[in-house]
Amino acid sequence: MLEDDFSELETLRLEKINRLREQGIEPYPTTTFITHTTAEAVAAFEAVEADADAALTAVVLAGRLRAIRNMGKLSFAHIEDRSGKLQLLLRVNELGQEKLDAFVSDFDLGDFIEASGTMMRTKRGEVTLLVEDFRMLAKALLQLPADKDEVVNGEVIRHAVLTDPETRYRQRYVDLAVNPEVREIFSKRTATIRALRAFLDERGFQEVETPILQPIYGGAAARPFTTFHNELNQELYLRISFELYLKRLIVGGLERVYEIGRDFRNEGVSFKHNPEFTQLEFYMAYADYHTIMEMTEQMISFVAQQVLGTQKINFNGHEIDLTPPWNRVQIRQGLIDHAGIDINDYPNAVALSEWLKEHHIDHKPDAPRGKLIGVLMEEFLEPILIQPTFLYDYPRDISPLAKNVPGDPQTVERFEGFIGGVELCNAFTELNDPMEQEKRFTEMGRAYAENEEERHPMDEDFLKALAYGMPPTGGFGIGVDRLVMMLTEQRSLKEVILFPPLRDTESGPSA
User: Fold this and answer.
1) pLDDT digits (tens, 9 = 90+) for 416-456
2) Beta carbons of 288 and 275 less than 8 angstroms apart
3) Candidates 2.40.50.140, 2.120.10.30, 1.10.3720.10, 3.30.70.360; CATH matching 2-161
4) 238-326+387-485 CATH choice from 3.40.50.11540, 3.40.50.150, 2.60.40.420, 3.30.930.10
5) Looking at the whole model, is its pTM more than 0.85?
6) CA dist., res. 196 & res. 304, Å (int)
7) pLDDT in tens, 323-378
8) Do the beta carbons of residue 486 and residue 315 sit within 8 Å?
């Protein structure tokens, strides 16, 4: 049971609950009567101050007690709600000694209180609620973690603080309760998704939903999670991408579509990877990857302006300007400039592997040529792509869903966007030739072992959809978590995912 693990102080809180109920007071009432948030109350009072004829502002507020100072005939407290903090002044003059004693004896840090009264300004100039009545809204049985002293207007205020990352991720509810800067991160996350939708909606895109459980996974190079549907007696996969379903909709005449939702990839965890993540994909008929490049730089700069009020961010130790146009670097030319190798001089994997061996660069010797070019990109190009940059024209054999660059059978019209040396997004001129697409799927099956993450399964129904005709289309995908990480100057996806997955421990379950 919960109370079996209570400390002495937490047991005292439980005793307070029992005492309140013995007095006929419910510590978890069903109804509140608030009239303002703390910010609205301050604004209303300041409006009164500006008008000498206006009456004092009577309000009913509610929030979590974040600081308490009991001083005999009066008590000061700070409450916090979604809009901010506000000081309460509880005096024997307004409440009477019995009521003030009840506050002192019954309330602890972390409790939720409803307080009514009039707004005032103290001698120190702090806007304050002069409390005329109050009641318990929810008693916190567990204490918020370790206290920290903060000086506010000359007064020392003690409040909770939590810094241990493991505890913060496992008990996000406590992290949010005591760290307002964490709440701000997730407010910006919400604003980011709202801005992405606004950008696309204004350009005639239609938001849709596609299956999470899929009979054939596809649209990306990743190992899927598998599950089983008992009624259908069928193995299913959690989707790794929306791509193949969204392109079916392009075939069906929905010329501009997008989806924001969860994808699942059964792969490693790092500061920039999470097995469950939020992705935005959009597909635009009659567009190619040059069109999508322009859309991308416009969209990301728009989102930054909406969320942050600026197009300049700090990420990974760099000040970064998101203002369009972004840099554009062709992979072949970039490697000539920064690695001293022309990949066109190494037309097969064997030759390219030899070059890598000669230069002591780790790689899988039996990897396809495209994967080896990827090794070169990671070694020589990606770390230097600090300002927003589109790296474009990718190897065909690692891009089975993209259309060839005209006249170059080994290269496709694909780009990835980089910021601060980290990949942000991925886009193609979509392959719409059903015969060529079937050939690519077959080649991928031969080139990769059965358990290779990059191996793309054959999707006959998708090929059938393409056979009905898909117009020239540009497609785009972006990890929303990674975008939020960049906009909020964080160095780990765990900081921008409310409940990141963690290993099981005896101290708590994985998220």
Assistant:
1) 999 999 999 999 999 999 999 999 988 876 655 555 555 67
2) no
3) 2.40.50.140
4) 3.30.930.10
5) yes
6) 10
7) 999 999 999 999 999 999 999 999 999 999 999 999 999 999 889 999 999 999 99
8) yes
